[in-house]
Amino acid sequence: MRFHGLDLDAEGSVLLSRRVANDEPELLTFIGAVLALADGSQVTWAIDMTGANWRCCSPSCATTARRSSTCLATW
Questions:
Q1: DSSP track, 13-62
Q2: Is 20 exposed, middle or buried (0-12, 13-18, 19+ CB in 10 A)?
Q3: CA–CA separation, 71 and 57 (whole Å)
Q4: How far apart are CA 64 and CA 20, in angstroms?
Q5: What is the pTM of this model?
Q6: Facing residues of 36 across strands?
Q7: Each residue of 6-18: pLDDT tens digit?
Q8: CB neighbours (10 Å) of residue 33?
Q9: Other C-beta atoms within 10 Å of 71: how many?
Q10: Interatomic CA distance for residues 47 and 75, integer angstroms
Q11: Residue 24, class by beta-carbon neighbours within 10 Å (0-12 exposed, 13-18 middle, 19+ buried)?
């Protein structure tokens, strides 16, 4: 399974766009690239999931959804 990772700046310009495998080292590499582009600025993550039940990975979000939902988390 692969995901699409997209990094936008505050104005909506695309900084990074690429496919990311559902693989911890590849996901960590993508997260590192996003954080490097942020250069110490705050990063807000959005996760858009479709399909089965899921629960957001952020402790600050209480989203539990069915079918399709989006979660925003700032770390």
A1: -EEEEEEEES-HHHHHHHHHHHHHHHTTS--EEEEEEEEEEEE-S-TT--
A2: middle
A3: 9
A4: 24
A5: 0.66
A6: none
A7: 999 889 999 999 9
A8: 16
A9: 20
A10: 13
A11: exposed
d(CA 54, CA 66): 7
**Helix (H/G/I), strand (E/B), else coil: 10:** coil
User: 52-70, pLDDT tens digit by residue?
Assistant: 555 555 555 555 444 445 5
- Confirm if 64 and 55 have CB atoms less than 8 A apart: yes
Dihedrals φ, ψ of 58, to 5°?
A: -90, 130
Cα gap 73→44, rounded to integer Å: 6
